[in-house]
Every structure is written in structure tokens, then in C-alpha cells.
Design brief:
This protein has two domains: about 190 residues, no CATH class; about 200 residues, no CATH class. Helix content is about 55%, strand content about 20%. The strands form two sheets. The protein has a six-stranded mixed beta barrel. The protein has a two-stranded antiparallel ribbon with strand order 2-10.
Length: about 425
């Protein structure tokens, strides 16, 4: 039941010791405040890392070649080699059950692309239809490269939005218009945007077969790109991607006479492996943040316990009088516990509110590559406060129990 006299006693005690109560509450509030801020930063780091992987499909795998670094079967290190259409076809046939999207890539750098009087230097990508999904590209207008374009080796092109803005002035619709790629006319069939950013929109895409024929690349390709079919959980997806990468690496090394120990000749970019490393790092950082925050809160709770011990010492004679006139031990315990819980609760909620307000105000202003929209789960923060209040009750119980055991005659003699 609500006991107004007990609450009056609590407020009277607080009023008599304003500075001590304030400093005790400040230590508790700062613990919750620091924990909320640290959890918010940890979540912001996770958001930032997730956005970094949005540029391409989250399970994408890229394969490219570099000069060999190990002598093998009489071939000197430093040897250059190129992947071919045969490699692309073989990997497709032997891994068709796990591949979701795939594309070879023929790159023509610093090409002059022009329309009427406008021109600029951009990159030409010879690709397959699956490249749109691997690169996370969305069509603004028109369509992307399709399989018929590949089969017919059509001179058609899908252009990035930045190319469109540079070449087509006054909002002119580029669909159906002809632009020149190194003085060769191509018909524009689509305009796309890329989640990877504006740099990825400063390029144009043509059928891979067309790029090889028109720009004299023969059967050579610059790299391979894939996404794998979704798995039931993240760990299984990582394991499947590692198996796929191992199979590709083994095949290419055997096909192109590369030493099994040569770690440089074949470059592999596996977004799932990179994500696993980053998320493992984020998990450790978050665990460290929790540890720091919890330690700060424990320090505050210990402070509450110490203050309660001091209060019990100061009120020893009062407690003796209460017991002498018939106060039950439970009444003495309740008196001390109420004050401990009250101070802990008020301080805890104050720290929580200030932490959430700071994240709400400053979070949107943080613009870095690896921290985005720092926030904290309100339910988690609220649960932490209730745990803190429970800990405050425990911290106040032991001084209260000590007070309840004081004999009246001993308490009355206390100076």
C-alpha cells in the first residue's frame, strides 16, 4: 500500500543530503547514459557496414587475374594470363545448381562516348543480363541487356544515370537515340542507377559478345562475377561461397598452369567473407561496449550501496528508537530499500532519457562511411534500466538487513 509518511521520510532524507544524493544519482545516471550511447554507436557501426555492402549484391563473388608470383612447370613468375569464354561456360555448367546470377565482364577503359556535341570519357562494360542484379542496378527508364542481345551481338547500350545527365541536356529522353562509343554507334535501350554510388553510374553496359567483337577482344574476358542462391542461414551461405570459390580457384589454376601455392595470380572478392569479418568485428566491439557500460553501471550501484551504508550509520539511533517502540524488521528493511530503489530508478530513467535524446538529435548529423543512424533498441535500454533498479534494490538490501539486525539498546547508545 502507498505510505505517504514513508515517502515524506525519503524526501526529507534527500533534502538534508542534496549533494550526496545528487552525486550518487549522477553516478547511476551516467552509467545508463554511457551504455545507451555506446549501444547506439555500436548499432550505427552495424548500419554503416550494412550500407557499405548494399553497393553490390550481399552474396556476390568477383574473380579477376593478376600476374603470377610463383615459377611453375618451367613458366617464370610475372606471367600474365586472361580468362576466356570457355572458363565462364565451364564454371556455369559445373556449378549451375548453386549459381543465382552470373556474368563475365569485358572492360574498355577511358572510352570516348558522345552524343551530338556532348562527349566524355567513360568506361564500357561488356556484360550478361545477370550483371544488373549482381551490381544492384535499378532501371530509371527502358530496359537492361537481355539474352537476345547477347545471342544477336546487338549494338545496343544501357547507360548509367550520370552518363545520361552529361550527354542528354534539357531532360531529353535518351531511349531509342544513338550514341557513339569510340565512334561506333550504339542504340540506347535503358538508363539505370546503381546503389554503389554515382561513380558506378559513370559507365555504360553493352552485351559481352558485342564488346568482344566490336572492340577486338576475341574470347578474352577481364573478370567473372556471381551471386549464389540464398541459404537457410548466414553460416551455411558463407560455407557454400567458400566451396564455390575453392572450386573456381582450383579449376583456373589447373587450366592456366598456375602453381597451387600461388596466392596472387587469381584475385577473389567474396562479399560474404568480408561481411563475416566485419560482423565479427562489430560483435566484438558491441560486446566491449556492453562490458564498459555494465562496469560503469556496477560502479554506480556500488555507490548506491555505500551511500545506504552511510545512511544506516547516520540513522542508527533513529532505527533503535523505531525498534524500541515496536517497529518490525521488515519495516526497517522497507524504509532503506525504498530510498535505494527511488534514487536508482530516478537516476536510471534520467540517464536513459538523456541518452535517447542525444542519439535522436545528433544521430542524423553523423555522416561517416562506417557509422550511420546510430540508435538503440528502446526495449533493450528499458530492460537495462529495470535490471539496474533490481540491482539497486539488492545494493540497498544489505545495508537494510544490517539496520534490521541492530539491537535497540546498542542503537540508542550510538553517538
Amino acid at each position: 500500500m502507498f505510505n505517504i509518511e514513508r515517502w515524506q521520510e525519503i524526501f526529507d532524507t534527500i533534502a538534508k543530503n542534496k549533494l550526496r544524493t545528487f552525486l550518487t544519482g549522477l553516478s547511476v545516471a551516467s552509467g545508463i547514459f554511457i551504455l545507451v550511447i555506446l549501444l547506439g554507436v555500436g548499432q550505427g557501426m552495424q548500419n554503416g557496414i550494412s550500407q557499405e555492402f548494399e553497393g553490390d549484391a550481399s552474396n556476390s563473388i568477383w574473380v579477376w587475374t593478376r600476374p603470377t608470383s610463383v615459377e611453375y612447370k618451367g613458366l617464370n613468375p610475372g606471367r600474365f594470363f586472361s580468362m576466356t569464354n570457355e572458363d565462364f561456360d565451364f564454371i556455369h555448367k559445373t556449378n549451375e545448381d548453386v549459381i543465382e546470377y552470373e556474368s563475365s565482364r569485358v572492360r574498355i577503359w577511358n572510352s570516348v562516348i558522345s552524343y551530338k556535341k556532348e562527349s566524355g570519357n567513360y568506361r564500357i562494360e561488356g556484360i550478361f543480363p545477370g550483371f544488373q542484379f549482381i551490381e544492384n542496378q535499378s532501371m530509371v527508364s527502358g530496359r537492361f541487356i537481355n539474352q537476345q542481345d547477347i545471342n544477336e551481338k546487338g549494338k545496343i547500350v544501357a547507360i548509367g544515370n550520370k552518363v545520361k545527365e552529361a550527354l542528354f541536356k534539357n531532360d531529353e529522353d535518351p531511349i531509342g537515340k544513338y550514341i557513339k562509343l569510340n565512334d561506333i554507334p550504339f542504340k540506347v535501350v535503358g538508363v539505370y542507377i546503381d546503389k554503389g554510388g554515382e561513380r558506378e553510374e559513370e559507365q555504360v553496359s553493352v552485351p559481352s559478345t558485342t564488346a568482344q567483337q566490336v572492340f577486338n577482344r576475341g574470347q578474352n574476358i577481364n573478370n567473372l562475377s556471381y551471386t549464389l542462391k540464398p541459404e537457410k542461414d548466414f553460416e551455411t551461405a558463407v560455407a557454400k561461397s567458400e566451396e564455390f570459390v575453392a572450386a573456381i580457384t582450383t579449376y583456373l589454376k589447373n587450366k592456366h598452369i598456375i602453381a597451387p601455392t600461388d596466392e596472387r595470380a587469381i584475385g577473389i572478392g567474396n562479399s560474404l567473407e568480408q561481411a563475416k569479418r566485419f560482423y565479427s568485428l562489430i560483435f566484438m566491439i558491441k560486446a566491449f561496449f556492453w562490458w564498459v557500460g555494465v562496469c560503469t553501471i556496477i560502479a554506480g550501484v556500488v555507490g548506491v550501496s555505500n551511500i545506504m551504508l552511510i545512511i544506516v550509520k547516520e540513522r542508527t539511533k533513529e532505527i533503535g528508537i523505531r525498534k524500541a517502540i515496536g517497529a518490525m524488521p521488515s519495516s526497517i528493511i522497507g524504509m532503506i530499500l525504498h530510498e535505494a530503489i527511488f534514487v536508482t530508478a530516478i537516476a536510471g530513467f534520467t540517464g536513459l532519457i538523456f541518452g535517447l535524446i542525444l542519439l535522436e538529435l545528433l544521430g542524423p548529423m553523423i555522416k561517416t562511411d562506417f557509422i550511420s543512424s546510430p540508435s538503440v533498441n528502446f526495449n533493450v535500454a528499458l530492460t537495462t534500466v529495470f535490471i539496474l533498479i533490481f540491482a539497486g534494490a539488492i545494493a540497498g538490501f544489505f545495508p537494510a538487513w544490517r539496520a534490521a539486525k541492530i539491537k535497540p539498546i546498542v542503537a540508542l547508545r550510538d553517538e
